[in-house]
Amino acid sequence: MYSKRSIAVIVGVLISLASGALFVKNKSTGVQVANTSTTPKQILLVPLGSSVSRAMVDEAYQRIRSIIPGAQLLQREPMPQVAYYKPRNRHRADSLIHILSRRAKPHQIYLGLTNQDISTTKGSYADWGVMGLGFCPGRAAVASSFRLKSKQSFWKVAIHELGHTAGLPHCPTPSCLMRDAKGGDPTAEEKAFCNKCKTVLIRQGWRL
Ligand SMILES: [Zn+2]
Ligand SMILES: [Zn+2]
Question: Which of 88, 122, 195, 199 could pair with 128 as two cysteines, CB 3.0-4.6 Å apart?
Fold first, then answer.
């Protein structure tokens, strides 16, 4: 015979199973998140321009693939001339994003990777140089190594922009990959996503 208590536990488990609301604990963060088994959006990486280094692209690809299942590296493409901004001899990041996002199907996110300078409009600045830009959330982003002190940090810029496409805003934690660069290069201090940002990404199927 079951005691009243064990029946209550069994009923509780059945209700949880029926509603699909079982929770899992993330090993590294200790944070409980809903076990919804979300499939992440498909990340498609596109090297832009002839001079972006293969080693730098490969490192970003390997790092992204290890945390976002199904990421793919596509063929290198020329920088789209339509995004060229002659007064500053650089390319507009917002134009690049528009071009890439038009290709993206609803389950896809395109990430352009380049070593050339890119810019966007920021407040009163008509053309402000940036390391990367991503719609938040969005279907496309672009990352550039041009402003990096150390090109080894390129993967951090790439993953930061993907974080924006997944809906993450900038984060106040100095060691978090979602930190705001504020016109500088803080990537040396960035180590990983903080627990709060991780929780959002894990819900979207990222393996962190
Ligand atoms: Zn950002
Ligand atoms: Zn964070």
Answer: 122
Structurally, the chain folds into a number of domains equal to 1
Tell me which range, 17-26, 27-36, 163-172, 180-189, is most confidently predicted by mean pLDDT.
Answer: 163-172
CATH number (domain holding residue 193):
3.40.390.10
Q: What residues have CB less than 8 Å from 121, skipping those under 6 apart?
A: 94, 127, 128
Percent of the chain with pLDDT over 90: 79
Q: What is the distance in A from the centroid of ligand 2 to the CA of 202?
A: 13
pLDDT tens, residue by residue, 87-99: 999 999 999 999 9
Q: What is the mean pLDDT of residues 188-195?
A: 96
At residue 50, what are phi and psi to the nearest 5 degrees? -80, -15
**Amino acid symbol at 126:** A
Residue 140 falls inside a structural domain: yes
Q: How much distance in Å is there from the Cα of 200 to the middle of ligand 2?
A: 10
Q: Where in the sequence is the domain holding 188, given as residue range(s)?
A: 42-203
Give the whole-angstrom CA distance, residue 14 versus residue 7: 11
